[in-house]
Design a protein that fits this description.
By secondary structure, the chain is mostly helical. The protein has one domain (2-320). 83% of the residues lie in helices and 0% in strands. The protein contains 15 helices and no strands. Helix 2 (16-28) crosses helix 8, helix 2 (16-28) packs across helix 13 (253-273) and helix 8 (143-187) runs antiparallel to helix 9 (190-204). The longest helix is centred in the middle third of the chain and has 45 residues, at 143-187. The termini are close together.
Length: 321
């Protein structure tokens, strides 16, 4: 159910940065535990890929372009789905990702020594938060209602702040990225592509922007499908920085553990699949097959999107709650 909730929440807000930062905040506040949050974080990885799929629809009237565009979009979907199918059962049965993240949290945050690290972000926002709370204390007597109102305000601020950053960073970087992306990847290895994807996503604070830029480039034939693949993997890693930053603003160590689990999950997926050619070809070849079918039967694209990103998660939540 947590996995499905993560997919659906990310689809609804159209941003894994928002959903993962929110999850980290809830864990850091003690509202959600780590075991429940990890599947949600993994679900966010799948949910964010809907943007690529929607971007590919711009070429739906041109069969060859659409085939390439849809392949570029679905290889990201399929890689993330495969990674979840491998690592979610392992995490549930052994807890290896959260255990490793817990060890890193102790190492990075100094929790192992019993001290509580001072959050620089929390210190910055403390005064304005206290002022807002003070203004609402008088008209709202119920602590529960006040908490709900503050939660809505906080989530709204996260959403609009990230949206503002995303829009403006795209204006600054998108054009330059489109000009230089293919030549940079073509000259280097997959590691270069991953580095480009990671750095770009950190810069624009949105994996959706990074991967959506790739779609028209692949559709037009400027960027090869297999050159685009490592960039999408790098985007997976880059988007985890938002959750790591969010963890700086929470009190509980668990928030940092969840953020690090998100990073480790993406790194583990890359480490297991990408170095081995037969394995890394699986999502790419599946994407090529799916895209050939989609080019002939465009109606199936709608069924794919609705099934994977909406109906499937809703059914999962209803059945598994």
């Amino acid at each position: 159910a947590g996995l499905c909730a993560g997919i659906l929440a990310t689809v609804l807000v159209q941003s894994s940065s928002v959903s993962t930062a929110t999850i980290v905040g809830l864990v850091g506040a003690g509202t959600l535990n780590v075991d429940a949050a990890v599947p949600m974080i993994m679900g966010a990885n799948i949910g964010t890929t809907i943007t690529n799929t929607l971007a590919s629809l711009a070429s739906i009237t041109r069969s060859d372009e659409f085939r390439r565009a849809f392949a570029a979009a679905t290889q990201h979907d399929l890689f993330n789905i495969i990674a979840v199918l491998i690592f979610l059962p392992l995490q549930i049965s052994t807890g290896f990702l959260s255990t490793a993240a817990s060890w890193l949290a102790d190492l990075i945050g100094g929790y192992g020594g019993g001290g509580k690290p001072r959050s620089p972000i929390k210190e910055i926002v403390r005064e304005p938060v206290e002022r807002i709370q003070g203004l609402l204390d008088a008209p709202i007597e119920s602590d529960r209602v006040l908490g709900a109102v503050l939660l809505v305000i906080g989530l709204s601020l996260i959403f609009f702040s990230l949206a503002f950053i995303t829009v403006n960073m795209r204006r600054l970087f998108a054009e330059q990225l489109e000009r230089s992306l293919n030549s940079a990847v073509a000259r280097g290895s997959g590691l270069v592509g991953m580095a480009i994807g990671t750095v770009t996503t950190i810069a624009v604070q949105s994996s959706s922007i990074t991967t959506s830029i790739l779609i028209p480039l692949v559709a037009s034939g400027v960027l090869a499908l297999r050159n685009a693949f490592p960039i999408t993997l790098g985007a997976n890693v880059g988007t985890t920085v938002t959750a790591l930053l969010a963890s700086l603003a929470v009190d509980l160590r668990a928030g940092l553990v969840v953020a690090l689990t998100h990073t480790l999950f993406n790194l583990a997926g890359i480490g297991l699949i990408y170095p081995f050619r037969p394995l890394r070809e699986v999502p790419v070849r599946l994407a090529e097959k799916v895209s050939r079918i989609a080019a002939v039967h465009p109606l199936l694209v709608a069924l794919y999107v609705i099934g994977i990103f909406i109906v499937g998660p809703v059914v999962g939540i209803v059945l598994l709650r």
